[in-house]
């Protein structure tokens, strides 16, 4: 099987839902990172064989095959095609998988994986609004016959995880505080500077709260009466985009590109869709087994902090060293722009491995429907 290399990774700062980036059209958000990716890598954009872009709410400004419109909005060659995909929160991590698989299959040499989501302009849930407005069921007879009419939501899934693993509010808030503290330290040290491409006057991630405290978190109401969850222990509604360039060995040589990391393992697994958020646990076990590695081999992990119970349960089951998990903070502090998060996390992972000299990095995230992608890379 051919090798696939990451030869470029860039992202916008992650903006808040009411920040300056919220006014940027999603196609222009995508165009910004796509153009920046081509400039930074020095790759010939006409040699790109596809643009695979993740986006969850593909309605309104995020419709009409956003990958294609973003590429054209960047002024890049009309000869390059694009496709927009939805694997819920893992959409642009799946974009990385599809791009890498195209290269590893030998059918493609240079593919862009990207992700965009403007949750300020296109609110979360916009893609199901029609059904809700028309009183139509979101699930058909086959689903309800199997799972009944019970609530299926990430919020309930996170609370079910708290109950299963025994997480209490105080533990969740301590984790959330750590996320903000780590992200604030990373911003202060300039660790994200090399990976971000400022846009619309926004130069740094907007969601980090360096002055938050456990006392402030304790004053928030739970999401529902009797629940452990509050807004403080959940990912932020955000705006952002990311892009990664995947190349074959021959493309690296032909275009004079610089490999940053090698794709080691691409795994995908489903789990209980009612719990929804637990799939990173078995998916990580599968990926490590296929790669012939253990968690002791992993120097840096990026696991999406959709809710604090997700990384906490994952770390408990995998025996992970929390010092190496989201070392520069996660989505609780930095935000979660849905379809963009996969490429945002990969950009963070690649740059952190290079900054620290680590060898192996692992990325995973929970996804709607009870799914999870896992990507293992090796620094080159």
From TrEMBL:
Residues 257-379 form the Thiolase C-terminal domain. Pfam families: Thiolase_C, Thiolase_N. Keywords: Acyltransferase, Transferase. Residues 5-250 form the Thiolase N-terminal domain. InterPro entries: Thiolase, Thiolase-like, Thiolase_C, Thiolase_CS, Thiolase_N. Its EC number is 2.3.1.9. Signal peptide: none annotated. It is an enzyme of class 2 (transferase). One of its GO terms (molecular function) is acetyl-CoA C-acetyltransferase activity. Belongs to the thiolase-like superfamily. Thiolase family. PANTHER family: ACETYL-COA C-ACYLTRANSFERASE, BLR7806 PROTEIN. This is Acetyl-CoA C-acetyltransferase. It comes from Nocardiopsis suaedae.
């Amino acid at each position: 099987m051919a090798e696939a290399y990451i030869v470029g990774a860039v992202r916008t700062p992650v903006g808040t839902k009411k920040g300056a980036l919220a006014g940027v059209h999603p196609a222009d958000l995508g165009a910004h990172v796509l153009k920046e990716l081509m400039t930074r890598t020095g790759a010939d954009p006409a040699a790109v064989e596809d643009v695979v872009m993740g986006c969850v709410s593909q309605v309104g400004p995020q419709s009409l095959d956003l990958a294609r419109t973003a590429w054209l909005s960047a002024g890049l060659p009309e000869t390059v095609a694009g496709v927009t995909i939805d694997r819920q929160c893992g959409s642009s991590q799946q974009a990385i998988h599809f791009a890498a698989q195209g290269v590893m299959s030998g059918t493609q040499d240079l593919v862009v994986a990207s992700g965009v989501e403007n949750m300020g302009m296109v609110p979360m849930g916009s893609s199901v609004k029609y059904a809700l407005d028309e009183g139509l069921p979101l699930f058909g007879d086959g689903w309800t016959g199997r799972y009944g009419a019970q609530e299926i939501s990430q919020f309930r899934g996170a609370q079910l995880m708290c109950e299963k693993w025994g997480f209490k509010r105080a533990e969740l808030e301590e984790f959330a505080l750590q996320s903000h503290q780590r992200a604030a330290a990373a911003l202060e040290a300039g660790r994200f500077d090399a990976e971000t491409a400022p846009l619309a006057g926004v130069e740094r991630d907007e969601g980090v709260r360096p002055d938050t405290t456990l006392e402030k978190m304790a004053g928030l109401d739970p999401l529902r009466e009797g629940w452990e969850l509050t807004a403080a222990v959940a990912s932020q509604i955000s705006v952002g985009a990311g892009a990664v360039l995947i190349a074959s060995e021959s493309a690296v040589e032909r275009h004079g590109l610089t490999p940053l990391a090698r794709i080691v393992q691409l795994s995908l697994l489903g789990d209980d869709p009612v719990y929804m958020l637990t799939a990173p646990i078995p998916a990580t076990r599968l990926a490590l087994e296929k790669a012939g590695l253990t968690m002791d081999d992993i120097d840096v992990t990026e696991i999406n902090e959709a809710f604090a119970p997700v990384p906490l349960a994952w770390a408990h089951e995998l025996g992970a060293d929390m010092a190496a998990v989201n070392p520069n903070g996660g989505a609780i502090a930095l935000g979660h722009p849905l379809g963009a998060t996969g490429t945002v996390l990969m950009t963070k992972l690649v740059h952190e491995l290079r900054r620290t000299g680590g060898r192996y990095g692992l990325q995973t995230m929970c996804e709607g429907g009870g799914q999870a992608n896992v990507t293992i890379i090796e620094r080159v």
